[in-house]
Amino acid sequence: MNREVCTAMVIEAKQEKQITYQYIAQAINRNIVWTTSAILGQNTFDATEAKIICEILNLDTDVEKALQIFPEKGVNAVMPPTDPLIYRLYEIVLVYGETIKEVIHEKAGDGIMSAIDFTMDIEKEENPKGDRIKIILDGKFLAYKKW
Amino acid sequence: MNREVCTAMVIEAKQEKQITYQYIAQAINRNIVWTTSAILGQNTFDATEAKIICEILNLDTDVEKALQIFPEKGVNAVMPPTDPLIYRLYEIVLVYGETIKEVIHEKAGDGIMSAIDFTMDIEKEENPKGDRIKIILDGKFLAYKKW
Amino acid sequence: MNREVCTAMVIEAKQEKQITYQYIAQAINRNIVWTTSAILGQNTFDATEAKIICEILNLDTDVEKALQIFPEKGVNAVMPPTDPLIYRLYEIVLVYGETIKEVIHEKAGDGIMSAIDFTMDIEKEENPKGDRIKIILDGKFLAYKKW
Amino acid sequence: MNREVCTAMVIEAKQEKQITYQYIAQAINRNIVWTTSAILGQNTFDATEAKIICEILNLDTDVEKALQIFPEKGVNAVMPPTDPLIYRLYEIVLVYGETIKEVIHEKAGDGIMSAIDFTMDIEKEENPKGDRIKIILDGKFLAYKKW
Amino acid sequence: MNREVCTAMVIEAKQEKQITYQYIAQAINRNIVWTTSAILGQNTFDATEAKIICEILNLDTDVEKALQIFPEKGVNAVMPPTDPLIYRLYEIVLVYGETIKEVIHEKAGDGIMSAIDFTMDIEKEENPKGDRIKIILDGKFLAYKKW
Amino acid sequence: MNREVCTAMVIEAKQEKQITYQYIAQAINRNIVWTTSAILGQNTFDATEAKIICEILNLDTDVEKALQIFPEKGVNAVMPPTDPLIYRLYEIVLVYGETIKEVIHEKAGDGIMSAIDFTMDIEKEENPKGDRIKIILDGKFLAYKKW
Amino acid sequence: MNREVCTAMVIEAKQEKQITYQYIAQAINRNIVWTTSAILGQNTFDATEAKIICEILNLDTDVEKALQIFPEKGVNAVMPPTDPLIYRLYEIVLVYGETIKEVIHEKAGDGIMSAIDFTMDIEKEENPKGDRIKIILDGKFLAYKKW
Amino acid sequence: MNREVCTAMVIEAKQEKQITYQYIAQAINRNIVWTTSAILGQNTFDATEAKIICEILNLDTDVEKALQIFPEKGVNAVMPPTDPLIYRLYEIVLVYGETIKEVIHEKAGDGIMSAIDFTMDIEKEENPKGDRIKIILDGKFLAYKKW
Amino acid sequence: MNREVCTAMVIEAKQEKQITYQYIAQAINRNIVWTTSAILGQNTFDATEAKIICEILNLDTDVEKALQIFPEKGVNAVMPPTDPLIYRLYEIVLVYGETIKEVIHEKAGDGIMSAIDFTMDIEKEENPKGDRIKIILDGKFLAYKKW
Amino acid sequence: MNREVCTAMVIEAKQEKQITYQYIAQAINRNIVWTTSAILGQNTFDATEAKIICEILNLDTDVEKALQIFPEKGVNAVMPPTDPLIYRLYEIVLVYGETIKEVIHEKAGDGIMSAIDFTMDIEKEENPKGDRIKIILDGKFLAYKKW
């Protein structure tokens, strides 16, 4: 079973059983963001995690194995994104990308924020003027090597 | 004077005088991220802010006026970004865009995180295993209106 | 059942039964534009609306559930549009986009018209020189936040 | 003088003299939207209109002549738009284009809304929950000819 | 039955029965160009036309209904065209587009040739130096409206 | 002098002197369409033609020589065209390209209409229901060679 | 049977029976290059040729008919080519295209080399320093018509 | 002096002095195709060749040095080409690329024709039915290495 | 059986049997990099190699034959790559491509590094500061031929 | 002085003085590859390095300062590359990208080779069958973080 078929089966089972990403994340003791990304085929579950998920969703060992394949990342993303929610993130890169570069260089010197040694957190913050979404990107600073 | 010429003049003056974005931000009592974006022509200074900046950088009233023009945003951005630092942000949208959509919908329902009613903060966090960069995106949740 | 299959089934049933978008809109007490967009998978029905639609079109509960999924918006759109009707809308953005930006800024200051807190109406206006189509876009003005 | 140089000169003079599009529109007895589009080089002034504008802005006859050239439309537009305000219009075509096609066909049959025999109006509507922008597109319905 | 399946069935039946576009056009009393375009899913047959075509080609009522759907135009076109015959038309737009614009403006003023209120004729002209193809495009002149 | 500078000078002189393409075409005894295309740098004048044009427009021998350079064709065309007039031609290829291919093959067999051994005529036809534009494309039929 | 299915069937049969393009070319008395292109769906066999090919490959009359359809050319080509062999040809156009234009104009005047009244030959030339491939393109010179 | 300025100066001098590529090629004892490509900045002259060319065209030592820079190849090419002459070459790759791949593999096995260890010749062949252009591409066969 | 189906079957069998690329490479006495590329359909196995592989993976003679087809290279690659691992390689070309060109020219003169007469090696190097990956590209230097 | 002007001045001075990249690299005690990349504006010199380079090339302090700006990387790269030398590198990613991904995952697990904590070496290896170029890419293995 390839990873795309596996992803479709997990999502269908999850919808049918009305199980949340949060529930699965807690069951495997991981953050909801990482768990969701791994379900969507952007990260890799280990054997234990895959087993728990297949038990929760009542899926067989083919799915369990496929969840452990190192996936081809990003292949189904549409760029520029057409979905308004995802486009807003793209727009932030478009409008503020250069700004972020300048501020990181001023604060930390010549290097980048890693997207590999990286975590992300997403929170909803209640607010009388309208709730807010907070996305926290946290990546290791990698200095450009000179040689 | 159009906004692009104005931006180039401010950056040149800033480099020559060795003044940081942080210094300018404090002088106008704004966050460094917003201030940098406005210098780079992605946001608009008001009259008072423009005046202070031109005093700091010793620039004339043409620049002061041009800093108050509502800019054409994002026009000089290269997409996909070629600079590794900016590309990593793009890659996060590519790899995690769908994940962010799913998590926001699960936490807040059918809507988006605004990129207009929006603030961003960037911090360097010292860490013995290697310093880390934290980027906090904070936008109003806007529910899709039904009619 | 994923949203695309669901959309195809609703449209087929609608064609077979010769039912108009207007009829469905009235049955669920919504505007024809919003209703059509939701049938085409660009907005989300709630449980009550989905139930009514499936009764009208004689479709089963799988469709009913799928109509309530938060959809991936815009993914099937062709840009630039090849269909002349849709291209004319694109052309209006191409030719008048900058004009609309200038006029909104002059009338309301630095901000945008929301496409989320947004409604649209479409009317045919009879006219002896040739009928006219009126499309009314109505979105909340969102000022750019400074921080 | 070509039309692009002419446009830049009119905009610079307009900014310097702090004259609004509305003021110019009233002086030539036209709608602000059409007037703005013609200043931006997307429509053509007649001799009388061009003369009045050059008097208001104190520009010479070269500009006056150039304002009467039939322009090359849309050439400077960036598509997809990078500016958030203009992008929201593009997003409306992306998300609702098919919807508009279906609704026009249901209301008026097989044809299109003209973007040539066409007018547009933009209004700001004050609202205690936040002001709103209304854009009214009004084009002749053109039926596809059969032959 | 959607329009694409319908198109494929009509073309297959037409090839099998060795029936020409010209024959079908005469049967429904339309020009061969319009008839061919409608068979290829770029225009819409009315009920009478659809019935005649299905009788000629021995196709059932599902096809008959589908031939009356208002089609999504141009979606299968490859641009730039790869087929040499179609590319030559594209090349004419590429090389002579600006010329056509200038000549129409000089002859008829500020406006366009409609592609909706439009007919086309294609003729083969025998010639001892080599036969020639004549394509006659005939569209209504639409003046740009001022408002 | 390269061909682009030459084109700009001819057009400027033509505008200043208020001379039509038709007038120049008659002076050199050519069709207005061909003459316009050659002025716009898409075809080549011979020495006699170049001389007459420079006399009419009062331009020097540098221009005269440059008008005889074999030009790089199509390089300034924007595809897809943004100008509505030129876009309508592109749309005809998009919507009717396949139709034209089918009709030419049915009428003349396996080959193409040449865009090199080719002439074009443009006429305005007065009509009480609205004037019409007629564009006649006339190219040699070239059969695909088998070898 | 459409042309793509037909092509796939011919190639599969050819591989299974281990028959070369050269063998088929000789059987129908055509050049190997033309024969290969026609098998790949870029040229059209006549009835006699199609019959011989189907006899050699033991294919039925559906294939025989489909081999005589005038094909849609070039639709499956990937541009820029990803295959190194085909890319080298593309690179020759990229690097030497302008050179070829200049040399043809110097040798033959203002016109082009036809790709329709055109033949191609491919030869392997043994050489002790490494064998060489020779591709001979031979097309009719078509002068640009003036009118 | 960079290579682009150098190219422009050589071409201008060549046009002014009415010197052919053939004449220059003979003066440096090279093929006209290679010579033209090197003048256009796609190949490199050695010191002796550069000197002869600058003497012929009466250009100074800056040009002489610049003609010896290893150029950035292909950067000014427009792909797909807009000029009909160059497009026909591109079309040959589009339509016959796969054919050439198949024939080379059948004749010489798994490898490519080099575009580096490569020569090209262009000839005009007089013919009563219309002159023909012959382009002979001749490249070393490079087998894919296995390791 | 075409090459894509064949590739999918080999990979599925390899996953099921938990066999490494290294194991297969040793069985056929080839480098792991070349072996992996050939399994992925980017290089060609000879008859002996194909036989061994099918024995190891328990696949039938259809696969064995298909593994010997000269493949269409690169067709499934996504460019720019979306997978972070592959993107980093692309980024190296983006950022260091010009550098590599300059250094090769300085060290070896006017020519290129072949990607056909070419081998690659990939090694993991253990390192207390974090393991490293070494990719060694080794291609024949091909001088540009002059003629 | 911005970084692009600075780069152009350094390269011009280097050409004029006939100084090699190797010579400059040794003067600042860095590898030729890194030094070349930094001269071309893809890496950053420190104050000492910038000073030495400006002394060697006889350039003033404006250049010295500009060499220390953190550059915008990759902005002038053409992708896909048109220059054959750089294209071959791109082709290696196109053809072997997936292979490299598979081999790295098999050897080191789920992660990537860093292009930031990264060095490159380029060597010419003399060989009687034709000299070879060796490019050694050496990057830290970064495992995907789970959280």
TrEMBL record, chains A, B, C, D, E, F, G, H, I, J:
CDD domains, per database record: Cyanase_C (cd00559)
Superkingdom, taxonomy of origin: Bacteria
EC number: 4.2.1.104
Domain Cyanate lyase C-terminal: 75-147
Record GO terms (molecular function): cyanate hydratase activity; DNA binding
Active-site residues, Swiss-Prot/TrEMBL: R88, E91, S114
Keyword vocabulary terms for this entry: Lyase
HAMAP family noted in UniProt: Cyanate_hydrat (MF_00535)
NCBIfam families associated with the record: cynS (TIGR00673), PRK02866.1 (NF002773)
Described function: Catalyzes the reaction of cyanate with bicarbonate to produce ammonia and carbon dioxide.
Protein name: Cyanate hydratase
Organism name: Flavobacterium sufflavum
